[in-house]
Structure prediction request, 96 residues.
Amino acid sequence: MIDGTASVKRGLGWQERLRCTKCRYVGNHYKLYNKVERKGFGRRAAQINVGLQIGIASTSIGNTGTCRILNTANIISPSKSFKQTGTNKIIAALLL
Ligand SMILES: [Zn+2]
Prediction:
């Protein structure tokens, strides 16, 4: 079964691993999202998070409004610092 105690949250993306209920086996974490392809080092952003940032940047809703919408839909929203960092990266990429 999915080991919910070891879930890793990356914004709106999740990484999960499997755990056996009969023995102590636990599998590797697997990303349940698609990554943005790019060159260079560092962790790849999840497409779902980049899409969210583009949506936030192109509407007047803003991070707080987005957070409220996600929470009322019972979706755990990304942290405020995460969204601000993402917004800054998107804006920087759009300005280049
Ligand atoms: Zn087992």
User: Anything to note?
Assistant: The longest strand covers residues 13-16. The chain has one domain: 4-95.
